[in-house]
Amino acid sequence: MTHTQALWLASWRKDNIETGRPLEKGFMPMIGIVPNMTLDDAYDLSFILRNKGGVSCGKQGRLIVKLCAENGHAEAVVQVVASALRQDATKPGIIRSRDVMMALDRLRDISKTGNVRAIVMEANVARHNGNIGQAIKLYEQALERIVKETGPNPKDKYANIKDEFSSPWIELAYLHVSRGHHVEAMKVYMVGLERDDPMAYFNLARLDYYMAGNQHTTDWLYNMTKAAASGHYKAAHELGEYYANSPCPPTKKEVPFLEKLRGFATFINQSNLNLNPKVQIHQHEQFANTPEKRIKLAHYWLNIARSNYYLPANITLAELCLQKFIYPKDTLLKPLDPFGHSKDSEAIENPLFNPKEAQAMLYEVMIATLVIAESKARCESHAQYLYETTPWSKHEEVLEVVESQETLQDLEEQAEMIADAAGIDITSSHKLLEGILRVGFLRPHKGERGQGVLEIKEEERV
């Protein structure tokens, strides 16, 4: 919070207390009185109040957004309408309330000025109301303006925010796919690829997989790797599963040394080297030419997903670390075998077999499901909920994927089944991700005592 914002907030509150003037009436007059205070400053202050303060601060932050919108602040208008769309599922009819209808009128006016975020929001409203044709036209209009942009807009700092309102290619491509227009969807995703959007790479990879008849292609591998390398949690998870379950590339015939030298000389003397990144990705795939190398790549990518606090990756990592053996393909599709009972002739000793690491994965899932469920039931504001669910709320979109009661229950049940099958007592003794609460002993396994791979004596359970 800047000095100007703090001075304005204190003056606004003081005016309300001393004069009895409603906060709504004193909002703009106090912005005019405090030197250098702008509507942008007030809107930015709302984020601090909603996300860092308590219940009363959160309420005042939401009021500021509403008042900014009523006074023509474009980004506030976009957020007010977006909030109404999210609430319409649980509060049917809210989108037809007087405040929202007025915000919609302002949104259309702002959209006509060429504000991309407002155009995307107007498209979202059209789609919400079932007017898909109008939504597609508006998304295409936003996309056209983005393509024509030559750089950041210094006059509108909100135009440079990277989120759902600045990436219309995601929603537009989805609508094309839902209509069976896959080629059009691919063209739209290309705009996102030009802007290095991880979500565009991820969605294009999935579309390519579908169009190839549910087959992993070089294009799929390239796009999924690009998304995962940018930290996209689902892409990293899928890439990890791919390397754990897919077979090694066919072994190439050994080339005599002299022939290798001749080939190298030919390569060096080429007038144009093939630096196509998709070709390079294919060559990278050739290096993972043993089950051991592929399982290590799987472990690497799954840990990228886990480092984003994506709990399904923990489940997959726990399974990987509890397989006594790995196989030329489908390692994660084999029955869990922590005791090495497999008689499969293709079984290979797992270099990453590590019950302690699996224990940490399962603990992180169990403590997360407890904290998130309790916080949802107890917290009175969204800001408080985000604070209480730290570190899983570090990436709010990741938290949204796992926070439903059904998903939390499913994750908890999976963690318990793995622990019981392997005979692992769940505790916080091993290395955990930063910020995760350590409570010590959490749960004993339900299998036969004395037969587990990682048990804790009763007197040591603290």
From TrEMBL:
SUPFAM superfamilies: TPR-like. It comes from the Eukaryota. Residues 394-421 form a coiled coil. Keywords: Coiled coil. This is Uncharacterized protein.
